[in-house]
Structure formats: C-alpha cells, structure tokens
Amino acid sequence: MQKSSWQYYFLLSGLFFFFFFTWSSSFSLISIWLGQTLGLSGMNTGIIFSAISIVALCLQPLYGFIQDKLGLRKNLLWVIGFLLLISGPFYIFIYAPILKFNIILGAAVGGLYIGATFFAGIGALESYIERVSRIAGFEYGRARMWGSLGWAAATFFAGFLFNIDPNINFVLASISAVAFLIILCFIRVAKIDAMGQLEYGKTSQLKISDALGLLKQSQFWALVIFVVGVSMYNVYDQQFSVYFSHQFATQQEGNRMYGFLNSLQVFLEAGGMALAPFLVNRIGAKNSLLLSGSIMTLRIIGSGLVAGPVLISAMKLLHAVELPILLIAIFKFISTRFEHRLSATLYLVGFQFVSQVCASFLAPLAGYGYDRIGFAETYLLMGCITGVFMLIAAFLLKGDKHIKSVIRGQMNESIAR
Q1: What's the mean pLDDT in 19-43?
Q2: N or C: which end of the chain has fewer CB within 10 A?
Q3: Is residue 412 part of a domain?
C-alpha cells in the first residue's frame, strides 16, 4: 500500500477498534445485567431487544441514504461519536432507573439510544470504511479485524469487572468513545470529491428514486431472503450469555467464564477477518454467503443438541468462522451486483435493516421459548428455520459467472450510448 493508504488503514482501523470497544463494554453483558442486576425475566429482556431492533430498523434505511448522500463526509460519524461518548452516563443514570420504574418506557428509551448508536451506527461506519478501503486500496477485512479485536479486548475484562461493579464497564465505554472522536478528527476530507470521482465515475446526485429502484431488482430480493435466514444469529446471541452462565455452579463464575469465551471468540474472529477475503475471492460471493449460512445453521442446531460448558463453547466459537465470511461476502455481493453509489443503502437496508426487522419480531418469541420450553429446544427450532432459508437462497442468488456476463453486457450497452 502507498503511504496515504497506510494512513487511512490505521486511522479507520482505530475507528473500528474503539467503536467496538465502546459497544462491547456497554452491551456484551447486557442480558446478564438485565437479569441479575435489574431482575428482569427472559420475556422482558426479549421485549427490550425487540425495541432496540425496531428503532434500528427505522433508522438503518435513513442512515444508509444519508451516508450515500454524504459520500465520504464525516457528518453522520460525528453524530454517532457523540452518542458513543454519552453511553456511560446513559446506562447508569438514565436507562437503569427508567427500567426499574417501567419496563415499556425503559424499553422505548433504551431502544432509541442503543438502536441509533450501535445497531444502526455500525452499518453506517462499516459502509463508510468499506467504501474508503476500495478507494484507498486495502482489504476491508483487514480494517474490520480491528473491530473484532476491540470487542475482544473489552469483553476479556467485562465479566471480571461486572462482578466488581457493572458500572465500571459503562465508564470504560465512554472513555473509549473519547479515543474514537480523537481519531475521527485526524481523518482528513480535503480530497473527497476526487475520491468520489474515482469510485463512482460520475457526478450525478443521488436521489430517493435511485434507492427505491432497488426494489425492482430480483437480486435485491434474493439477498433479502438470505438475510432473513441469517438474521437468526442476532436473536441467538441476545440471551446466549444467560444460557451459558447457567452451566456453572455460581453466576459469578458463569459471568467470568462467558467474558473469557466471548473474548476468545472475537480474537479468533479477528484472525478470520484477515483470512476471509482470500476465501471469498476464491469461491465467490454467492458460495461464501451460503457457506456462512450453513455454518450458522450448524452452530444454532448444535447448541440445542450438545450439553455442558465445553461443547456449548465449541458451538459458540463457530461464530468466529461464520461471521468474517458473512461480512466480507455481503460487501462483495453488493459491490459486484449493484451500483456503487448505493453501497451504504444496500448494506443498511438489504442486510442490517432486514436483520433488525426479523429480530424485532423474533426476540420476544425467543424469550418466550426460553422461559417455556428451554434454551436447547428453542435453539433447535431457530436452527431449522435458518436451514430452510439457506436452501431457498441457494436457488435464488445468482452465481458470479452469471453476474460477470450481465456486467459485460451493461458495459457494452453503456459504450454504445
């Protein structure tokens, strides 16, 4: 990479690291915090996650369109950075008291903040950095790896600190956000117009009609079908920490061991982020998506079949294989099937938005299932649903050879004009 590319790589990797460090510090043990500290049931926790998903799904299309309109300008990232900064005070002084007063009101307030900051914010950040990575000449996965390391670094200590005082994690979240904002200051935008020309090859302003035009494309709906299936991993992860902690003699031991497990998973995930681009480039976007979905199906069903902390941990660690392939393949699929100007909209609508729609519907049902029939049985049902959608997606998604022939035809038509 050239010197300028290295500068972008280090700065954007830093943004990933501290965004995920803040997110992990404030959210990785939220199910345990809601259950053990605030005394909420699985059903109530599901309602809270549903509220987060509903807010996220409302904001993700908006974030995507705004970021596409902004191009490489940082306005939206500044807003997200401020929201990260207030995470500690929000959880300690606003969220917890409101939840103790009224679950529905607390779910609404928490859903608005958490959904806007993390679940919608991550899509805007990822699409921004993926766009810059294509222009600056480095693999997106190499930068995204630092996000996984940030999550792992925070989670490694989260269980231990939670047993001392849960508020320590929330304070660390705000401290991490300060570093995020400092790094954001150093990302210069002087050459954005030139970089935009390099990416788009045209200067036309993005319109709402351009975004709505995606609804007419069959591959957009094929992607939606696929994402409906893989969205189950969000629901699976929401209360897994509760299930895992119950495998130990005491809650304190379970909390501590879950922190270590989650940290190990994300460290492995970081390595996967560095390696996944080689696999995706070799087998293609469609096959990579289906591979990640198959691993996800195995992980969820396996979690319902095995018993004991060791085997359950092994199922959880499959996430470190599945997620890097999924994220790299999603961006590869988008960049090779759709217009580049709409990359943020596609990612936040086609992937993040659809995931949150499903999560908002399924989270309360999953919580009800955990309370009524148990975690293992609920996981089996979730895994079967994921498997069915993977089979459907296998027939609907177009392979890379077909897409290349379509692109060549479009290029020839454009030249003729």
Answers
A1: 87
A2: C
A3: no
Residue, of 308 and 348, whose pLDDT is higher: 308
Higher pLDDT, residue 361 or 411: 361
Q: Is the pLDDT of residue 262 over 60?
A: yes
User: Which 3-state string (H, E, C) describes the chain?
Assistant: CCHHHHHHHHHHHHHHHHHHHHHHHHHCCHHHHHHHHCCCCHHHHHHHHHHHHHHHHHHHHHHHHHHHHHCCCCHHHHHHHHHHHCHHHHHHHHHHHHHHHCHHHHHHHHHHHHHHHHHCHHHHHHHHHHHHHHHHCCCHHHHHHHHHHHHHHHHHHHHHHHHHCHHHHHHHHHHHHHHHHHHHHHCCCCCHHHHHHHHHCCCCCCCHHHHHHHHHCHHHHHHHHHHHHHCHHHHHHHCHHHHHHCCCCCHHHHHHHHHHHHHHHHHHHHHHHHHHHHHHHHHCHHHHHHHHHHHHHHHHHHHHHCCCHHHHHHHHHCHHHHHHHHHHHHHHHHHHHCCHHHHHHHHHHHHHHHHHHHHHHHHHHHHHHHHHCCHHHHHHHHHHHHHHHHHHHHHHCCCHHHHHHHHHHHHHHHHHC
Q: Which domain holds residue 255?
A: 3-200+214-407
Question: Which of 15, 123, 129, 130 lies closest to 62, judged by CA?
Answer: 123
Domain assignment present for 209:
no
Whose tokens are 């630092």? That residue is 146
Output the CA–CA distances (angstroms, integers) from residue 292 to 221, 267, 295, 400, in the order listed: 19, 18, 5, 17
Give the residue with greater pLDDT, 179 vs 131.
179
Q: Is residue 416 part of a domain?
A: no
The answer, yes or no, to whether residue 413 has pLDDT greater than 50, is: no
Phi, psi dihedral angles at 138 (to 5 degrees): -135, 155
pLDDT (0 to 100) of residue 119:
86
Number of structural domains (the chain) is 1
Domain contains 208: no
Report residue 172's pLDDT band, with 50, 70 and 90 as the boundaries. Answer: very high
Looking up tokens 């480095």 gives 138
pLDDT grade for 195, boundaries at 50, 70 and 90: very low
Instruction: Provide the residue type at 23 as one letter.
Output: W
Q: Look up the CATH number of the domain holding residue 193.
A: 1.20.1250.20
Whether pLDDT at 416 is above 60: no
Predicted confidence at residue 295, as pLDDT, reads 93
